[in-house]
What does this fold into?
Amino acid sequence: MKLNLNIQPLNSWLNVKNEPLIISGPCSAETEEQLLSTAHLLAATGKVSVLRAGIWKPRTRPGEFEGIGSIGLEWLNKAKEQTGLPTAVEVATAKHVEEALAAGVDILWVGARSTANPFTVQEIADALKGVDIPVLVKNPVNPDLSLWVGALERINNAGITKLGAIHRGFSSFEKSSFRNEPMWELAIQLKTLCPGLPIINDPSHICGNRELIPYIAQKALDLDMQGLMIESHIDPSVAWTDAKQQVTPAALAELAERFSLRKPESKNEEFTDKLADLRKQIDKIDDLMIQKLGERMAIVEKIGQYKRDNNVTILQVNRWDEIMQKRSAFAKALNLDLNFTERFLELVHGESIRKQTEIMNAGKAEKGIAAEAHTEVKA
Ligand code: PEP
Ligand code: MN
It folds into this structure.
């Protein structure tokens, strides 16, 4: 199946200052000062092509900061005047669309929660009829490709041809190192359905923390995504929303400096294409292995605490024998070298023991003298 969208290529409607395309700005516009100072620093990096800011914030629970509202549009305009950066905001209702258009916002985006609701998307699409403005559609909160496609179709049917998608990850029931699971395959499927559709990656909302952003951003570029949307705040530690995942403009500049822009070396040569393809597969698996190791260690930590609280030894030889036997047999069935497998498992197990030892000792330090005194009384 191919998706029949009537769209214009990204470079015909967006002036990319510096490859890769970076859309950046605070999660939320908070104050005029915060928005303007962030915008100036971002513009000065020379790496940013569009200034983003949330004006109306969709929040999971009432009572949280729900966006500064219309006044923020005036600040955005000031930021544009002063820096020359085009602006982008999230719209979730027809009223948002009208206000953003009236204020001269350059690009609109549909947020993940809105994409999940066809009524909302249709309302936005209807408000866009007869308007010529670029619109970016974030993937829905849940991993449902049809909802994402449906939202793109609704906006496109309203006559919007300057269209793009934003991959911001998917909420998942399983605990993971990410705030939103990337599920790259869904973005790849969308690209396969509509090769001309630009897909911009949003590592900030995928990661939920600053530390992981470089890996996800680089991976998105390696997967040929057309750009990145990265949240940036003048002082992330005091941000009113998404504080953990925002980066300073300086950190953003450093991040952008380090990207490797990998172009397929020689498109004509079958050999190099195949090699690049195989490497991408390897990268994907390696990232998955690292992610899984991170998840394994998080469980190890829990086990460590549990053993500590129940006064059980760290090492239980029977359990270790069982792990070795079962995993080795599995590895053998997969044609993996036995020596390699054992060394790998020993390394992982060694690290688990180290981690648990740390936890046991931390526990001792916390309980301190009281715990020792208790043992003495028992003895
Ligand atoms: C945002 O971009 O600040 C935002 C609310 O994102 P999402 O819709 O992806 O959750
Ligand atoms: Mn945010």
